[in-house]
UniProtKB/TrEMBL annotation:
Residues annotated as catalytic: S63
Lineage of producing organism: Archaea, Methanobacteriati, Methanobacteriota, Stenosarchaea group, Methanomicrobia
Protein name per the record: Protein-L-isoaspartate O-methyltransferase
Pfam families for the chain: PCMT
Compartments it resides in: Cytoplasm
HAMAP family documented for this protein: PIMT (MF_00090)
Matches recorded under NCBIfam families: pimt (TIGR00080), PRK00312.1 (NF001453)
EC number in record: 2.1.1.77
Amino acid sequence: MEQDFAQARRLMVEHQIRARGVSNERVLAAMREVPRHLFVPEDLRSAAYGDHPLPIGEEQTISQPYIVAVMTELLSPEPGDRILEIGTGSGYQAAVLGRIVREVWSVERIASVAAQAERNLEAVGTANIHVVVGDGTLGLPEHAPYDGIIVTAAAPSVPEPLFDQVADGGRLVAPVGSRHLQDLVCYTRRGGDFVVRSWGGVAFVPLIGTYGWEG
Ligand code: SAM
């Protein structure tokens, strides 16, 4: 069974991710390694390597593998980096990042979702990922600045506090737009300025909080 999952993972990386243009070898290697089926509800494990998001309870989702890969590549993670993720969900994106970087802080709004993510992360044995329950639209100033910030829920605009928590040269990746359709944008800090580029259209569940949507 584990061998079948490992094979499904290799095929996922080749056909859904590399074939569509993601080329960062660190990202591809991490996604070949992280057992995605351990981040979805047990009855959905056989669908874990499909080309789509999946429900994880509480009306939340684990993102499509390709979108996880694209966002991770946009973040340009380096081994020594410290990363902040907003929207822990299943913990899968954090686990992928945790394979690449030194430390990941991940904030989740829903306590039961965060608790399940902690169990998932424990099951795959990660030591450099910290899950925090709270409103991620405020960031996590006590551990700032971060080399990268990744927002994995749809924001009406980039929450203002997050800009202050990006290190010089750091990246901030977020889906920004309406509640139903967003543009995936990547901001890179250059001193007091940000260079912005847009990747294209995505659809995420809403970011709910002080600098997000109303619940
Ligand atoms: N990155 C996740 C993964 O790998 O499974 C997928 C994230 S899911 C698409 C979006 C998550 O963002 C949900 O779990 C939701 O509860 C969370 N969320 C929404 N608003 C939030 C906020 N203000 N702070 C922290 N988490 C939030």
